[in-house]
């Protein structure tokens, strides 16, 4: 079986949420084919220029796919709506429904990792879209999921978003803060605190105290020098009179 037969017969693209755009569906298929050519078929044949050319083509197609995901009115909302209910016991009974949720986690993880190859401003806009359209519901589901793989994938998503401009994501997340209870911390707000530097007033007080102490030491040293000089002059007068 050659690679064309393999792509036609063995490779099936799974749709968690239906993509209502034939052009984007074609971009997804072409992106996979290019990645397959780069990593498998032509891995030992490509020179640097050919490798860079294919990598650029893949990156451009991935950029268009990410733009579709964040700008489409329904795609992300329908995806995160899968996690909107809190009946997790029902998910255990309905294995097909639960598997669809797990596939959704894999989908978001895959595209968050893909976004790391894009420009910083594109990543920021994509992460904002994820947060504002319901990423927290997926995170809450993963905390109750028994499969370790799902928790690992969601953790990877959280870490990637936090590492990239957490302050920017927090701006759009503030509008939804009332949706979460006291135990739910928006991921965009999980950033290290910076210690407050000492105030200039306390610095000035410390400097004045140090200057006063140095001046007192200087005066005491000067007084001792004068005392020694006086004793020395007195001894000289006694010798001369003798």
TrEMBL record:
Residues 2-166 form the Serine/threonine-protein phosphatase 4 regulatory subunit 3-like central domain. One of its GO terms (biological process) is DNA damage response. One of its GO terms (cellular component) is nucleoplasm. Residues 204-220 have a biased composition (Basic and acidic residues). InterPro entries: P4R3-like_central_dom, PP4R3-like. It comes from the Eukaryota. One of its GO terms (molecular function) is protein phosphatase activator activity. It is found in: Nucleus. Keywords: Nucleus. The keyword Protein biosynthesis does not apply. Residues 167-242 are annotated as: Disordered. PANTHER family: ATP SYNTHASE GAMMA-RELATED, SERINE_THREONINE-PROTEIN PHOSPHATASE 4 REGULATORY SUBUNIT 3. This is Serine/threonine-protein phosphatase 4 regulatory subunit 3-like central domain-containing protein. It comes from Pichia membranifaciens.
């Amino acid at each position: 079986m050659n690679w064309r037969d393999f792509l036609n017969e063995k490779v099936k693209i799974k749709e968690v949420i239906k993509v209502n755009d034939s052009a984007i569906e074609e971009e997804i298929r072409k992106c996979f084919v290019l990645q397959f050519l780069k990593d498998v078929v032509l891995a030992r044949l490509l020179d640097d220029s050919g490798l860079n050319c294919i990598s650029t083509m893949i990156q451009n197609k991935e950029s268009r796919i990410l733009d579709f995901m964040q700008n489409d009115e329904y795609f992300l909302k329908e995806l995160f709506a899968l996690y909107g209910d809190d009946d997790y016991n029902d998910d255990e009974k309905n294995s097909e429904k639960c598997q669809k949720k797990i596939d959704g986690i894999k989908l978001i993880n895959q595209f968050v990792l893909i976004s790391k190859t894009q420009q910083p401003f594109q990543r920021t806009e994509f992460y904002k879209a994820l947060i504002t359209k319901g990423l927290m519901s997926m995170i809450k589901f993963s905390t109750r999921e028994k499969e370790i793989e799902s928790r690992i994938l969601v953790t990877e998503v959280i870490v990637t978003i936090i590492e990239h401009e957490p302050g920017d994501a927090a701006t759009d997340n503030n509008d939804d803060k009332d949706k979460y209870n006291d135990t739910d911390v928006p991921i965009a707000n999980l950033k290290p605190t910076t210690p407050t530097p000492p105030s200039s007033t306390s610095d000035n007080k410390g400097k004045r105290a140090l200057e006063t102490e140095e001046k007192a030491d200087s005066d005491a040293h000067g007084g001792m020098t004068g005392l020694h000089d006086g004793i020395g002059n007195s001894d000289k007068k006694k010798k001369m009179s003798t």
